[in-house]
Structures are given as structure tokens and as C-alpha cells.
Amino acid sequence: MLDVDRIAVFYGDIQVIFDLSLHVGEGEIVTLIGSNGAGKTTTVNAISGVLRPRSGEIRYRGVSTAALAPHRLVAEGLVQVPEGRLLYPGLTVRENLKMGAYPRASRRRLRERMDWVFELFPRLRERQGQSVATMSGGEQQMVAIGRGLMSFPRLLILDEPSIGLAPLLVREVFGVIAEISRNQVAILLIEQNAVQALTLAHRGYVLEHGHLAHAGPAAELLGDEAIRSAYLGI
User: Fold this and answer.
1) Distances (CA, A) of 225 to 31, 192, 199
2) What is the full DSSP assignment across 107-161?
3) How far apart are CA 183 and CA 109, in angstroms?
């Protein structure tokens, strides 16, 4: 589904990502964890086409993404739900969701996809006419994830979906992520809540100052004493 092959990413003359490789297979949940400033968001912005690696290659479903603009990647099924949600505060829940159905094929199946989003998040069905500016942080995160699902992704990148949420809402959001995965959507999950992420994921990568520090099955990373001490706080 996704192959990131030894990419280097810069901001101007400052290198942020060094020789990073990772992959996501069909139907997998893969998590990328690391401390603040490790380069996680830079990595996913490179995968989404917002940034261009200076070297290395990113392939989505076997095809290089180098010549594809972000909106083309969305149309091909590679969708990012960004950190901070970036919703349209003056629009309603329903209007924000419709903005996610950007590709033409998605617009033709708008009602079908919106019904699925409302099944995942019943609260959004109840509040579909409400302005998102008046909603809680947890509800806004539901809208952000729902908007990402509107374009029928095959690979969904979730950047810090639990940030700022109460523990009960975190469990709810992670439960929905598991349900999305069961519907043949591969997921790349970027998370500071490393314990939750590794508990949910099949495999994990640990990023440290732009370098890949550890990689392996999520259960092994979760049980590694050095990783538990350095990244998991346990």
C-alpha cells in the first residue's frame, strides 16, 4: 500500500528527516511514534505530497508519488487527517463532511459515505446542522475523521487524533479507528499516546530526531524495556 524508501526531508537548508524508510501493507494499522519535534508530522506531510523529499522515494500502491499533487493523491485514496483538525468553523457538521468528498467519484456516492460516517459517529448525525465552532474538541475530532472518510480512502493517515481529548473520548476514537480498519482501510497512525497506539497497531516505528530509532511488531515494541522507559513513560 505504502513504501517510504530512505527519504530525506528539509525545511530550507535544515534537514528534518534522515534516510527514513517505512511501509504500510493492505489492511494494516501501522503507528509512528516519537516525542515532540521528532519529525512525525514532517514525515506524513511528505507522504501526502505537501512536502517533497530531497532524496529517496515514496510509492503509493507501487507508483511513485513524486509527480502527484496532494489533491491527486486524495483522489487515488491517500487521505490525511491533519493534526489540529483544520475544520471550517463557520460551516455546519454536514457541510464540513461534504467538503471531504472532493474527488468526483466520492461526490457520486455522497449519501452512502455520509451514512457510514454517521454510523461510526452517531453524535454527528444528531448534530449535523450544528456549526463546528460550537462543538467540543472531541466532537470536532469526530468531524475531522469523518471528513477524511468521505473521499473513500484506501490509506488513511491520522496525525495525532487523540491530542487534547479526555480519556473517555480517546478510547472512543481508538475504537472507531479499529472499526475503520476492519473496513479494508489501511491506517498510518501518528500518536504521542504511544501505549494506546501500539496496543491498537500491528506494527510500529519509533522516530527520534528525524532518524528511525526502532521498528517492529507493535507487541514487541510495547514489551521492550528500553522503549517503555524512553517513550511510553512506564
Assistant:
1) 18, 18, 15
2) HHTHHHHHHHHHHH-HHHHHTTTSBGGGS-HHHHHHHHHHHHHTT--SEEEEEST
3) 17
All three cell numbers of 118, joined, read: 454517521
**162 to each of 88, 168, 173, 209, 234, how far by Cα in Å?**
19, 11, 7, 22, 19
Report how far residue 187's alpha carbon sits from residue 180's, in angstroms, rounded to the nearest whole number. 9
What average pLDDT does the structure give for the chain? Answer: 90
Which domains, ranges and CATH numbers included, belong to the chain?
A: 2-87+153-232 (3.40.50.300)
Q: Which residue has the higher pLDDT, 46 or 109?
A: 46
Decide if 47 contacts 4 (C-beta within 8 A). Answer: yes
Distance CA 50, CA 103 (A): 18
Q: What does the chain come to in residues?
A: 234
Mean pLDDT over residues 60-82, rounded?
93
Look at residue 28 in the predicted model and tell me its pLDDT.
Answer: 95
Alpha-carbon dihedral angle through residues 97, 99, 104, 105, given to the nearest 10 degrees:
-20
| 147/45 Cα distance (integer angstroms) | 18
Give CA–CA dist 148/145, Å, rounded: 5
More confident residue, 134 or 105: 134
Question: C-alpha grid cell for residue 123?
Answer: 453524535
Instruction: Take residue 103 and report the three cell numbers written for it.
Output: 474527488
Nearest CA-CA partner of 81 in 137, 146, 27: 146
